[in-house]
């Protein structure tokens, strides 16, 4: 993995402020120097910067740093993680408007396709609309699910509504429509692209665990791929593989936006 800070090789002093655990990020896949939903990733970074720091992010500069990091790594296919934080953030005075810093980490490309069996748990991320760096809880819940023989975890709010997976969004099919949970969650770029390009009927609505018993198929998606959910809490979903294949075909038709 190669990491840059504001376009320069990251030094120890650049990384120390990250120990405060206050910041946000986006993760994305690059193929041939291009990204699906690049505009969505940049918009996410800009909006979250306003919410967490009261600052404006120069999205064009960030895109330039991303392209530069790829060139320096001599890669055209890669995984990128872009993290926004501030070396000037002071937790004693969190209301102060501060300039932000940008870490770009480049690593090998990934494509998630393997099907999974998941279990549900009542849990919700803090500020679920922001892709923030506070990931301890969600990974602890994933670890607990895996210790019981599952592949991952699906979150349910205290009110009993299905929201999202540990690092992914959920879609289910009721035989007529593709359904997306309405509960507060991090709305991912893959979900946004699928909503824009899905050819059939779809809706966003409240979904409770009991509603999933009547579903025949479900898939999970994020910027690293789309995969079938074979079962949720032991309820087998026999149509998931076919639905996932349809979802991957839809994403394959989405144009890729060049980084430079």
How does this model look, in words?
The chain is of the alpha+beta class and 260 residues long. It has seven helices and 16 strands. Strands 7, 8, 9, 10, 11, 12, 13, 14 and 15 form a nine-stranded mixed beta sheet that branches. It has a five-stranded antiparallel beta sheet with strand order 2-1-6-5-3, covered by helices on one side. Strand 10 and strand 11 (178-181) form a beta hairpin. The chain is globular and about 50 Å long.
What does the largest sheet look like?
9 strands, mixed
Secondary-structure-based class equals alpha+beta
Our Rg estimate from Cα atoms comes to 19 Å
Order of helices and strands: EEHEEHHEEEHEEEEHEHEEEHE
Strand fraction: 25-35%
Number of helices: 7
Number of strands: 16
What integer is the average pLDDT?
Answer: 95
How helix-rich are the residues, as a percent range? 25-40%
Shape: globular
* Terminal-residue CA separation: 21 Å
Low-confidence runs: none
Produce the secondary structure layout:
Layout: E1 2-5, E2 8-9, H1 12-15, E3 24-30, E4 34-35, H2 38-53, H3 59-73, E5 78-85, E6 101-107, E7 116-122, H4 136-147, E8 152-156, E9 162-165, E10 169-173, E11 178-181, H5 189-197, E12 202-205, H6 209-212, E13 217-222, E14 225-232, E15 235-236, H7 240-252, E16 257-258
Parallel strand pairs: 7-8, 7-14, 11-12
Antiparallel strand pairs: 1-2, 1-6, 3-5, 4-16, 5-6, 8-9, 10-11, 10-13, 13-14, 14-15
